[in-house]
């Protein structure tokens, strides 16, 4: 079945924002369009960046899914029971955020892990800081939801807090959602909100690539593919933030808890983390960072993301980090186990 013009437009926009590391990282983020009683949603584990190259969308029956959410039916969490099988020949699995998209009345919903948003959403005063930035932005009706586990709990909170005119939702320690009636309107709204929330990034000293290569030789650690990732270790203020805890869910999924730091006298080959959630990003202060060779496909994008986020946070700002229980909830969640399995297969 040929994609509708709206779905084609969504695929093009999804690919565009999926290739911008300041908007989307790896398999993170999801987009959707509602038409003909169907919610076309990005499939779990797929990359927005590939939306114009492969089929990443599948349809779910919208009204039954909404009824399940309202009734407290736990089937709404996975949403697999609402997939329209005959229109899903690849057997794709709905995004973990399908229920979130369903509760919005608008036709088009974009959920992204916008760096500019996350840098504010990780603050203890996130709601006030974001409200101050969005005040006076024409055509924006916004609300802020403190951190909740992604998926159904978040969908229920949005349904309770957002009104029918709400078109911007910021998510504590998570990201940004915008909604509109057309793909073009949603894309324009995303750009305006991201710009309003933008903060300048602190400059960072250059990495010592040669020194890192020598340190990593013979170990299970490698250099990241994106050189921006090194800013986490070469900028003391970034490192001071990143080592304290985890700021958003996808860092846990792809890189484990916080950022490990190599101490004096240690080498990557001898480093052993005592964190409950295995750490896949190792900072060598003043030199740069290393990524564990066992890290999932997409880990490099998240290695850059923490440098981008921490570089936009004031070093003296009071922050809210994910708790150990919240980290454990993510890594042991069936939906994330599935997504990690796809990422592991893609890496192989």
What this model shows, in words?
The protein has 348 residues and is α+β, with helices and mostly antiparallel strands. The protein folds into two domains: 5-196, L-fuculose-1-phosphate Aldolase, CATH 3.40.225; 209-347, no CATH class. It has 15 helices and eleven strands. The strands form two sheets. The protein has a seven-stranded mixed sheet, with helices on both faces. α5 (115-121) crosses α13 (299-310) and α12 packs across α13.
Indicate the topology.
Blueprint: H1 5-18, E1 30-35, E2 38-42, E3 57-61, H2 62-71, H3 75-78, H4 98-102, E4 108-112, H5 115-121, H6 126-134, E5 142-145, H7 152-161, E6 168-171, E7 175-180, H8 183-196, H9 209-216, E8 221-222, H10 231-234, H11 236-242, H12 249-255, E9 260-261, E10 281-284, E11 288-292, H13 299-310, H14 324-331, H15 334-347
């Amino acid at each position: 079945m040929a994609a509708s013009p709206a779905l084609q437009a969504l695929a093009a926009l999804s690919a565009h924002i999926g290739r911008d590391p300041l908007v989307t990282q790896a398999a993170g983020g999801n987009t959707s369009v509602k038409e003909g009683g169907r919610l076309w949603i990005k499939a779990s584990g797929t990359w927005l960046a590939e939306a114009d190259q492969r089929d990443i969308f599948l349809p779910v029956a919208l009204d039954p899914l909404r009824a399940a959410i309202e009734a407290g039916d736990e089937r709404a969490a996975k949403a697999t029971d609402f997939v329209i099988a005959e229109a899903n020949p690849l057997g794709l699995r709905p995004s973990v955020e399908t229920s979130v998209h369903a509760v919005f009345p608008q036709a088009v919903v974009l959920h992204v892990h916008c760096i500019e948003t996350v840098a504010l959403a990780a603050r203890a005063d996130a709601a006030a800081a974001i409200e101050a930035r969005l005040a006076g932005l024409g055509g924006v009706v916004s609300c802020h939801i403190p951190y909740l586990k992604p998926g159904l709990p978040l969908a229920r909170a949005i349904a309770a807090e957002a009104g029918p005119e709400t078109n911007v939702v910021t998510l504590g320690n998570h990201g940004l959602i915008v909604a509109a009636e057309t793909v073009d309107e949603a894309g324009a709204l995303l750009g305006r909100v991201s710009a309003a929330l933008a903060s300048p990034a602190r400059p960072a000293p250059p990495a010592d690539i040669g020194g890192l290569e020598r340190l990593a030789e013979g170990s299970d650690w490698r250099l990241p593919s994106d050189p921006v990732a090194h800013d986490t270790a070469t900028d003391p203020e970034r490192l001071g933030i990143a080592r304290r805890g985890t700021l958003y869910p996808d860092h846990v999924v792809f890189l484990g808890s916080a950022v490990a730091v190599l101490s004096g006298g240690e080498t990557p080959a001898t480093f052993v983390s005592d964190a409950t959630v295995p750490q896949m990003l190792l900072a060598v202060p003043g030199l740069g960072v290393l990524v564990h060779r066992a890290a999932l496909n997409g880990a490099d994008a998240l290695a850059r993301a923490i440098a981008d986020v921490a570089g936009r946070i004031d070093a003296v700002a009071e922050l809210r980090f994910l708790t150990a229980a919240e980290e454990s909830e993510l890594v042991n969640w069936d939906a994330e186990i599935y997504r990690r399995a796809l990422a592991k297969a893609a890496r192989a």
